[in-house]
Amino acid sequence: MRYQFMGIVLGLIVLTSVVDAKIKALIVDGQNWHEVWPKSTIMMKQYLEETGLFNVDIQRSKYTWKAKREEKFLPLAGVGETEDLPKSKTDPDFKPNFSQYDVVISNFGFKAANWPKETEKAFEEYMINGGGFVSVHSADNSFAKWKEYNRMIGLAGWGGRNSKSGPYVYYTNEGELKYDHSDGGCGVHGPRHNVYIKVRVKDHPITKGLPENWFTAKDECYATLRGPAENLTILATGKDQSGKAPTDRHEPILMVIDYGKGRVFHTTLGHDDYSFEGVDFITTFLRGTEWAATGKVTISVPEDFPEEGKKSSRPFKLKE
Ligand SMILES: [Zn+2]
Questions:
Q1: CATH number for the domain running over 2-294
Q2: pTM of the model
C-alpha cells in the first residue's frame, strides 16, 4: 500500500512538472475599438493552447468595452458587467503580476485606458529583466505618451504621434531600408485586402522556413508608423496593393525588438476575425509568441501555410 501511495505521489510530482514546463502566457485586454473584440482574444488563446506548449490566462481592464458583435464571446473572455472609462482615462486597478509569465500579449487598441504608473514601472522592469511581449495589430495604437512602451514596440501609430515620436522606417520599392525623419503624421491604412508580404530576414527563428512572399487573409496594411526604432529588426514587410494605398513603399508588418534583456514580437496584422484566420497570421503569431517567451522557435511551418504568391485561411472553430 505504502509503495502504491509513493508511486501516486511520484506520479503527481512528474505530472506537475510536465504541466509546469508549459510556457505561461498572459493576454491583456479590455479596450479595443475593433468590433471583433473579444473574439480575437479567445482565438489567440485557443491557437496558443492547441499547440500544447502554452498555458494562457486573460487579464482585462475593469473598464471593458463591450463587443459589438458575437456576444457569445463575452462570457468566454470573462466579461460581465462593464464600466465606462472614467475621465482620468486610467484604470487604477490594472495590476497584472507580469513576473509570473514568460510572455505578455496585448490585445488593447486605440485609446486604451492608461495603466497606472506603478503598473507601467512593473512592466518596464519585467521586460528589462528578460520578459517577453507581443503587440498585435492596434496594440501599437495604445499608450502614445508612455515613452518606454514606444521603445519596446519600436514603431507605433495614431494617438497624436508625430515626427517627435521618431522616424518612419520602411523599405523602398528598390529594396532599400530607410529611416526617414521627415515631418508628417503617424498611422494610416488603406482598405482591407490581401496584403503582399515579403520576408526581409529569412534566418530569424520566426521566419525560418517560410516562403519568400505570400498574401495575407483580408487585413489592413498599417503604414507611416513612426517610433524610436531602437534595436528593431523588420522581419517582413507589406505592400498595399488595394488600389487605394496611402504610401508607395513596403511597410513593416512583422518586427522584433530587443528591449533590455527582453524580447518583443510586433505584428501589425489582425484587423478582424477573418484576418486572425490567415494561416500566416496564426503561424507567425504562434512562432513570435514562442520566440518572445523563450528566444527559440520549435513550432513548425504547417502544411497549409500559403505558398509563394498565394493566400491561405483556416476557418476558426471554437473548441467546446
Ligand atoms: Zn484594424
A1: 3.40.50.880
A2: 0.93
